[in-house]
Amino acid sequence: MKEEFVQFLWAEELILPSEFKLEDNRAGKVLARGKWNHNSGPDFKDAIVQIDRTTWVGHVEMHLKASDWFAHGHHTDPAYSNVILHVVVKSDAEVHDFQGRTIPVLVVPEEEVLSFQETYDRWLANKGILPCSGFLAATPGPLIQTWLMNMAEERYKRRVEFGWEVLESTKGNVELTHWILLARIMGAPTNSDSMEMLMRRLPIISIRRKTWSWDDFEKWVMAVSGLSGEMQTTYQQKVFGVEPMSKAQWTWGRLRPPSFPEQRVRQFAWVFYSRMIEGSQKLFWKTSFWEPFLTGRRPGKSTLETWHLNMVPYLGLGSWTEGWTSAEKWRELVPEKNHVTKIFEDIGLSLDSALESQALLEIHQEYCQMKKCLNCAVGKYHLIAKDYDRKDQG
Fold first, then answer.
1. Would you give the DSSP letter of residue 40?
2. Distance, CA of 382 to CA of 166 (rounded, Å)
3. Tell me, what's the pLDDT at 123?
4. Rounded Cα distance, 309 and 285, in Å
5. Whether residue 179 is found in the same domain as residue 306
6. How confident is the model at residue 393 (pLDDT cuts 50, 70, 90)?
7. What percentage of the chain has pLDDT greater than the value 90?
8. CB-hemisphere CA count at 13 Å for 311?
9. Which pLDDT tens digit goes with each residue over 91-103?
10. By CB neighbour count within 10 A (0-12 exposed, 13-18 middle, 19+ buried), where does 49 fall?
């Protein structure tokens, strides 16, 4: 049993009726359970509790054992001086704040917690990628759609914020920022940082001033990356002042040959050459953009689609156009296909656009893998549904 689980049950009003008896037999009534505090300090802020006929406004602290109050040092911490209720599963000590004031104690029947704990433990023990795989199909469609939208927005917002951080690091250079972000996307999943380091080594202005053939430019970028030996000539080193990277800065582990760094660097060099040197206006995520590129080295259609949808949140950087700040932009794109989306599809979820697939990746990475079922809308729904079933049976 974890404190966080008891906190969740309290927050969702799954344990204890609004009216109760304190351990000292005084009558109590919860008027507001408070705001769940996930930072330091009391667990629930600004709760309202009526004890006998007196109404108290303050904080609620929760522990598995009352003695944890002392173990955690709350009795000497002024931050806990406004606690009006101490909720515990086991009462093994009378507690007081740093001024010596006794804190009212409310005991949660252990059997109430355990009735929910069984379901929660089953999720935690699930070795599969999706802890709630047995419940997901029984989840109402509207709830899933709302949750997917929220998760897509969360993921999109994080991308936009990262883009602005990169823009700040380039001192507002939108063009350089876009190239850095594209380099990171093409280097994913394991070489994003290395691709960014490579892009930051490429002097855009100096490159534009020189006349290049594709072969020369490709060889030079590969040399700068450290993937093809030393720089071609002392002249290029002198003119561009570029220190080549080390081959040790790149990763090959767990990558398939199409994603090897040599391939991705060449592909990135082609995008850069086509747009910056030849002035092509073609979109890099279109297969026609890659027709002049060697057949065996062209990225696949699904890879291009993934690069495109990952680049979308960054396309509005430096612009005040609000439309680029919403995950709705992903709804215009096809969903990507990978082992994670397949798991959800096998259970019965349909993916109509990149918005849904990106949302599922967010849920998988931020909730399922970390077993944060209590913070997930699906997990909350089924625990609450269990409470309804329990009450009906009672």
1. S
2. 40
3. 80
4. 9
5. yes
6. very low
7. 67
8. 21
9. 999 999 999 999 9
10. buried
What residue type is 252 in one-letter code? W
Asked whether residue 26 falls in the same domain as residue 132, the answer is no
Contacts of 239 (CB under 8 A, 6+ apart): 206, 210
Q: What is the residue range of 190's domain? A: 173-317
| 199 and 303 together in one domain | yes
Q: Which residues fall within 8 angstroms of residue 202, CB to CB, at 6 or more apart? A: 179, 221, 224, 242, 272
pLDDT tens digits, 227-244: 986 555 545 565 577 888
Decide which of 92, 125, 158 is a domain's last residue: 125
Reported as a single tens digit per residue, the pLDDT across 286-310 is 999 999 998 788 999 999 999 999 9
Determine which helix (DSSP H) or strand (DSSP E) holds 130, and give its type and residue range: none
- Model confidence over 5-36: pLDDT tens digits? 899 899 988 887 778 899 999 999 999 999 99
- CB burial of 289-317 (b: ≥16 within 10 Å; e: otherwise) equals bbeebeeeebbeeebbbbbbbbbbbbebb
The alpha carbon dihedral of 283, 288, 291, 295 has a sign of: positive
> Are 187 and 308 within one domain?
yes
Question: What tokens were used for 95?
Answer: 């507690």
Q: Are 106 and 24 part of one and the same domain?
A: yes
Tokens for 283, please give them. 């979109």
Residue 321: the pLDDT is 55
Query: In this structure, which amino acid lies at residue 246?
Result: S
pTM above 0.90, yes or no: no
Count: domains in the chain: 3
Burial class (CB in 10 A: 0-12, 13-18, 19+), 251: middle
Residue 324 DSSP symbol: G
Alpha-carbon distance of 232 to 385, in angstroms, equals 67
Judged by DSSP in three states, 234 sits in helix
Write the DSSP symbol of residue 132.
T
Q: What is the dihedral sign for C-alpha 311, 315, 317, 318?
A: positive
Distance of CA 371 to the CA centre of its chain: 13
Q: Strands 54-65 and 83-90, how do they pair?
A: parallel
Report residue 119's pLDDT band, with 50, 70 and 90 as the boundaries. confident
- Rounded CA-CA distance 22/136 in Å is 38
Rounded distance, CA 338 to CA 356, Å?
13
